[in-house]
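Task 17 of the worksheet. Students: predict the tertiary structure of the chain below and write it out as structure tokens. Keep your answer in the requested format; marks are given for formatting as well as content.
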Amino acid sequence: MTVNREPGRTGIQSLHRALDIVEIVATRGSVGASEIAHELDLAVSTVHNLARTLAARGYLVGQRGTYRLGPGTAWLTSRWEPMTVLPELTRPHLEMISKQTGQSASATVLVDTEARLLAFMPGASSVAVQQPRWTWPSPLDLATGTVLVALAEQRAWEDHLRHRTPEENWEQRLERIAATGVHARRSVGPTGQTAVAVAVRTAAGPVCSVGSAAPTFVATDELVDQMLQSLLTASRSLSEELGCAEPALPSLAVAREAVELDLGATGIADQQ
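Model answer:
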């Protein structure tokens, strides 16, 4: 997570500082006031005053100058409904991807252990991938779902890998995908597809992913690169709209290398 502490940021500074404190505590788990003050370049007394107010509202729990997240944050999280909020937010970006590439675009979220499509935009090209199903019990069957699994905590991987064989080297793949938040896959044959996916992040971590897919027989290197660039642009814009001022996106060169490595792999399903 990146805490936005840029001097030029707009808005109410005291509110920014209070939210900075919550985000630091969320990242560290348990942290002292002096450490927070050092990171935010604030007086310890200022941190204590802000933290005590947050504790009074239930967003932090303080004990002997050390703070943890409080029950108020859990209540806020429980009110977050990605299947309600994100479809409308992602749809304009999917339209842009479809127009720029001529291929289909989708947004995906993890709900428990399932991957669910938030929105889908068919390709503008006369040769494009048709609409897939909306719920996937195994997220690893989707490029977009695979990105989200890779960026989850590693202890959650076990549920998704239970029915995978050791020969598939999924843990190694997920580790590589987690390093960039980018994934691509290709299959051949009459119905083969080539798909690329990129994570979308909030300040607290990944929230969904966006993907684009094309029939493999039209997926030239130039088209795949165009899909990747369009997805990176959409991911950055969506992440900023969701409050992540500095999304942890790879450079285009690093993303291209990740895509080349993935497309060189075999035996992976080909959905977006």
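Marker's comment: The longest strand covers residues 205-215. Residues 82-263 form a domain with the Beta-Lactamase fold (CATH 3.30.450.40).
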